[in-house]
């Protein structure tokens, strides 16, 4: 993944007031454990207006779903719930010919209370003029436990160490 692409995506979402929280490997990196990741995992607030804005913004950057799905279908909660039940779908992947090294995965259901976590997420300045919402380490660890892949277990170990260090520094 190119850092310049990440910045472009996040600036575009911010400039259009999209409510989102960064999770996954990018969140792991932002919290201090540097490792490779090829995608950007986002939990976008799943209200129709926010979804339609997010997908329109990403479409302007050349991103489109890797399956034939319209923005309106993705904005429909009943359709998303059906995908989850019948296709065991967790995320909608967006790909771009302009940014082939960076896939965007958007969760099709909010894995936590979005408003609560948005208000309690870390508001981190990545660059001058670029503040982003990043999921807290404890919630990220819980998400990683549910995914339970090898890299998730490795992330949990490092995130737990970072969290313990932060807590000991606070004492």
Describe what you observe in this structure.
With 171 residues, this protein is an alpha+beta fold. It has a single domain (3-136), classed as Beta Polymerase, domain 2. Helix content is 51%, strand content 20%. The chain has helices at residues 3-15, 24-30, 48-60, 71-75, 77-87, 114-120, 137-147, 150-170; strands at residues 20-23, 39-44, 63-65, 91-96, 103-107, 122-127, 130-134. Strands 1-2-5-4-3 form a five-stranded mixed sheet, sandwiched between helices. A two-stranded antiparallel ribbon has the order 6-7. The mean pLDDT is 95.
The domain tally reads 1
- Figure out the total of helices: 8
By CATH, the architecture is named: 2-Layer Sandwich
Unreliable parts:
none
The amount of helix comes to 40-55%
Total strand segments: 7
CATH class group: Alpha Beta
> What do we call the CATH topology?
Beta Polymerase, domain 2
